[in-house]
């Protein structure tokens, strides 16, 4: 009897907690891979710094932690910025250190002037944001047994060791390229926009919808900012010959235009459409736009081409419905606000039709260039 409880406890741990741990790990694969890359970079930087007997080898370790990012392009960008900022900061810091040794009474003033100059440079060129920190460390952490020029040289070597360790770890251990992040961001934006189109189609039909449009718009804005960063990192990878795949430069612009079109549709639907004969064709058009958008997004992963014919047919039916309302004079009898919202809806749907076609064109061009 006393042995039954521990046995049951071990069985609970083995069956329950281990399964939960494995499930949690499977959901965090990218984070685990990043942690392994950082750990490997830190170990390599520490080993090289120890082997070279660098006086302040811990800066190589700090640099490895800082520069390792979630993609190769981001790591290269961080490494270059860290190196450039360190070189500039070390040069200015060495000059300031010489002045401090010569005029020790003005040490505080020399420090403030050096930091002001480098902070101005960092404000103009964010690439040099590390430069003020490097200069301050060199001035405050000056050692009596090492002249400023030698200290600056060692600081550059230490940062270089850490940067190279970070880049090597990112290239060799679970290499993640920015193109994969771009694909993920586009899919996330497409899912948000598709959800909004489905939501507004239900609004047009008078059906209930639990979606909160404002939350979708906020999420879209955040992901678009990340997409811009991923695009810059992908360009860095391509320029470094580390990747031959790229995304069209116009991709973020056409996604922004889609978002703006959907926002205009939402504003037009703040109140029910006054003409029932327009609601169903407009809803069918939004459904077709949602389908076309999802199909077009598959192009970025070399999927099948979207059904342009079905999308065009829905667009034609929508245009015919609008023309029919113009012909029978239904719009002329409406109050100004209702008529304005209907014209706004028509204008937004027409823009959306054009921008979705442009979205598909850009992705098709990208696929043709990759072949």
Keywords:
single chain, 371 residues, mainly alpha, Methane Monooxygenase Hydroxylase, Chain G, domain 1, 2 domains, 79% helix, elongated
The oligomerization state is: single chain
| Rg, nearest Å | 29 Å
| Shape descriptor | elongated
| Helix proportion | over 70%
Give the averaged pLDDT, no decimals. 81
Provide an overview of this structure.
By secondary structure, the chain is an all-alpha fold. It has two domains: 28-172, no CATH class; 181-370, Methane Monooxygenase Hydroxylase, Chain G, domain 1 (Up-down Bundle), CATH 1.20.58. The chain contains 13 helices and no strands. The protein has helices spanning 4-27, 29-52, 58-67, 72-102, 107-124, 131-140, 148-172, 178-204, 213-239, 251-268, 276-297, 308-328, 336-370. Helix 2 (29-52) runs antiparallel to helix 7 and helix 11 (276-297) runs antiparallel to helix 12. It is elongated, with a radius of gyration of 29 Å. It starts with a helix and ends with a helix. 38% of the residues are buried. The model has no long low-confidence stretch (mean pLDDT 81).
């Amino acid at each position: 009897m006393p042995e039954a409880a521990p046995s049951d406890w071990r069985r609970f741990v083995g069956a329950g907690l281990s399964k939960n741990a494995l499930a949690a790990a499977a959901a965090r694969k990218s984070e685990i891979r990043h942690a392994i890359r950082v750990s490997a970079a830190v170990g390599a930087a520490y080993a090289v710094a120890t082997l070279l007997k660098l006086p302040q080898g811990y800066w190589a370790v700090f640099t490895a932690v800082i520069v390792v990012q979630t993609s190769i392009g981001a790591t290269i960008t961080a490494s270059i910025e860290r190196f450039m900022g360190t070189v500039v900061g070390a040069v200015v810091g060495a000059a300031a250190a010489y002045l401090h040794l010569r005029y020790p009474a003005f040490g505080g003033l020399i420090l403030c002037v050096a930091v002001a100059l480098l902070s101005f440079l960092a404000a103009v060129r964010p690439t040099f944001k590390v430069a003020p920190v490097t200069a301050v460390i060199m001035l405050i952490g000056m050692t009596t047994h090492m002249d400023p020029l030698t200290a600056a040289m060692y600081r550059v070597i230490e940062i270089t060791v850490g940067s190279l360790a970070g880049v090597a770890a990112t290239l060799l251990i679970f290499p993640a390229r920015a193109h994969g992040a771009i694909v993920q961001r586009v899919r996330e934006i497409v899912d948000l926009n598709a959800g909004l189109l489905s939501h507004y189609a239900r609004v047009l039909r008078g059906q209930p919808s639990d979606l909160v449009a404002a939350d979708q718009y906020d999420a879209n804005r955040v992901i678009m900012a990340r997409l811009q960063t991923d695009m810059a990192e992908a360009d860095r990878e391509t320029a470094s010959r580390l990747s031959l795949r790229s995304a069209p430069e116009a991709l973020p612009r056409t996604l922004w235009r889609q978002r703006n079109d959907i926002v205009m549709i939402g504003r037009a639907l703040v109140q029910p459409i006054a003409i029932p004969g327009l609601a169903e064709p407009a809803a069918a058009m939004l459904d077709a736009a949602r389908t076309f958008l999802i199909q077009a997004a598959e192009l970025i992963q070399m999927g099948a081409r979207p059904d342009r014919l079905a999308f065009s047919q829905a667009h034609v039916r929508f245009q015919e419905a609008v023309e029919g309302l113009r012909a029978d004079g239904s719009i002329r009898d409406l109050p100004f606000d209702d008529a304005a919202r209907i014209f706004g809806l028509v204008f937004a749907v027409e823009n959306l039709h054009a921008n979705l076609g442009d979205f598909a064109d850009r992705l098709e061009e990208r696929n043709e260039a990759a072949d």
